[in-house]
User: Fold this.
Amino acid sequence: MAERRWQWFHRLASPPGFYRVSGRWLPWLAGTSLALLAVGVVWGLLYAPPDARQGNSYRIIFLHVPASFLALAGYYVMAAAGAIHLIWRVKLADVVMSAAAPLGAALTFLALFSGSLWGKPTWGTYWVWDARITSMLVLLFLYLGVVTLRQAYASRETAGRACAVLALVGTVNIPIIYKSVDWWYSLHQPATIRLTAAPSMHPDMFQPLVVMILAFYLFYAWVLVLNVRAEILVRERRAGWVRDLAGEGESE
Amino acid sequence: MRSPNPEPEALPSLATGFAALLRRDLLLAWRRRGEAANPLWFFAMITALVPLAVGPEPALLARLAPGMVWILALLGTMLAADSLFREDYVDGALEQLVLSPQPLWVLVLARVTAHWLVTGVPITLASPLLAGWLALPAGGVPMLVAGLALGTLTFCLFAAVGGALTVALGAGNVLRPLLVLPLYVPVLIFGTAAVARALEGGDGSAPLALLGAITAVTLAIAPVAAAAALRVGIDG
Assistant:
């Protein structure tokens, strides 16, 4: 009984099993994320009202805020996958982790870059040592550490476990880093307008933002699954099932 | 002749294992005193470069002093941390440590303690002198010393994680700082803030207490993480 209950898990956690099952998810993930992205972009960029003080430049938040959300969430996806790999030696978890690291780094960079573009018309400069910006920068460094460490090891198995340890140490420290940077900023608060905290956002702006956040989550899941599938094929390229798959592709 | 089923020998206790490794490391450091002084030299020489780079006005130097001394202490401990595990890895002693009956994290803690006593403590003790070179007012010195004592220990603990993660890599000495430097951010923030508060005539004990809390958390997790990373490096 207990064995049967876990069968689905073992099937999903084995690379070929995941490859088969995830193939069925792809159209759904692609369809919903692209549809929501289209709705959110058109709604946010064309129909949402301009901001009273910032005019149209505020519209970058429809890209910036979802990217920042996922940059942080992506670290936890990566660290959780690393922990699963480290503790239970689930091979698939390591594949997820190796796919999540560059993806998270890219999203963090996107958040920093879009924030910096927004800063130019708003603050008059591309870079301000603001608490959130600084925390995101440290997060980017943490991501790059994991990416670099994986590349440095020749053995994939060793690299996966070493990266998992590093990601877990980072997980413990991220809240401390965030709190300390907030505290540091409150000491040195310069005389700039703080527009990052928007306590009462108008619903007309808030609703498209929620759509965009949802769209980004789905898009992240889609891209993550695509990357995991590609990495599975690379790692299992000598396995029979991948050869069969490639053989079928050629005959068609 | 050995009996086929020898009586199990009494294993050395945790404290014995800790003390034995600490003693060995301190003895090795003592026999290579010149090398052990290098971080301190580095710390002093870079401090002397600061006035040359930014100018000798005491007001400007005093403004920069807390942050500069902290960053240089960070670099000084970082420079020395490459020797934490690498030599033992190369000559095979590290595998003996991994195989020893004591939990590996206890031995990592002993290694880090020895490393801190050899690098962190001298840097802490030298800091009032070097802060004086940078014209730091005397009011900031007690907080600087107290903060550095805690901060260098935290730096050494994180450096052990980085050193363990990169021990099996040839190019590790370049990668290791990149892995752990982001983790140093809170220590640097609270350490410099304690000095800054004391200089303003306030009480720096709140940031110092937060720094102590970070040191305590790091003391709990870093040896375990470093031990896990060492096992990965040895297996791989």
